[in-house]
Amino acid sequence: MTDTKYTRQTIIDVRTWVPGKLFSVHATRDPAFAFQAGQFARVGLPAADTPDAEPTIWRAYSMVSAPHETHLEFYSIVVPEGEFSPRMAQLRAGDALYIEKNPYGFLTLERFAPGGTLWLLASGTGLSAYLSILRDPATWKAFERIVLIHGVRTVEELAYRQEIEGWRADPAFAPYFEQDPRKLVYLPIATREALPGVPQERLTTLIADGRLEALAGETLDPARAKIMLCGNPALLADARKLLADRGFAPGRRGIPGNLAVENYW
User: Fold this and answer.
1) What is the pLDDT of residue 263?
2) Angle at 115 between CA 113 and CA 121, to 5 degrees
3) Looking at residue 52, what is its pLDDT?
4) Distance linking the first and last C-alpha atoms of the chain
5) What is the DSSP-derived secondary structure letter of residue 257?
6) If you average pLDDT over every residue of the chain, what do you get?
7) Tens digit of pLDDT for each residue in 215-225?
8) What are the FAD-binding FR-type domain coordinates in residue numbering (predicted)?
């Protein structure tokens, strides 16, 4: 291998959430690849007409898998005219996937002081980083409560919903719910389909009119709340402004903040 910046990994399986649109891949993990929950990797494939060649096309994907898990998992949307995601969606068990050796990104819990309520707001595949964060037991120990909000267009796009709702009965997470039944509040929100008890609204609308706090049963109090935003840039720009007006801001010069933002585009 001529380039030592990456390793060749092997696809374990591919899960389709929405045919032709949303999928996840599991791949082997190099034992030396270490990352923090919330970080992303650069993932590579060879050019389409040279499938056995060295990788030349690279894209950034947040790890869905937790730092302690022995495999890597990535969640992706298919960009129909893209040169990467349609091919990644067609990979099958045994195929090669290339991973750069160094992780990237700062959407990690190091951005915040522990305690209070952790709010995780995602649109679409921006959920990826939060799954890694929530699969890490350290997260559950660091915050009194966690609010996970996943905004999508249609109900079928609520990937990982069954897993998230199943944590309450999972032996790894059940003790936290026994201590506090509202340890994790999960709010799946679809703008184009009705879900029981949830408005069909954009996340920014729900922040602005106070309904998000009512749904979560928690207040967006900058003294207690820490907020992560991950999703499409337009949503994040609007949400960031709304939250800035409420007193939320990123940390600076070594001082922890109460807001962390990452475009997922």
Assistant:
1) 78
2) 80
3) 79
4) 31
5) -
6) 95
7) 999 999 999 99
8) 4-110
Rounded distance, CA 260 to CA 251, Å?
Answer: 8
d(CA 218, CA 210): 11
H or E segment to which residue 13 belongs:
strand 6-18
Q: Which residue has the tokens 């199943």?
A: 166
Give residue for tokens 């951005």: 111
User: Which tokens sit at 100?
Assistant: 């750069």
The number of beta carbons lying within 10 Å of the beta carbon of residue 253 is: 4
3-state secondary structure 194-253: CECCECCCCHHHHHHCCHHHHHHCCCCCCCCEEEEEEECHHHHHHHHHHHHHCCCCCCEC
Determine the pLDDT at residue 156. Answer: 97
**Amino acid symbol at 39:** Q
Rg (CA), the chain: 19
The single-letter DSSP state of residue 81 is: T
Q: Tokens in use for 192? A: 């184009």
One-letter amino acid for residue 161 of the chain: R
Print burial letters for 70-90: b (CB count within 10 Å at least 16), e (below 16). Answer: eebbbbbbbeeeeebbebbbe
Average pLDDT over residues 163-182: 96
Q: What's CA 59's distance to the chain center, in Å?
A: 16
What is the band of 264 on the pLDDT scale with cuts at 50, 70, 90?
low
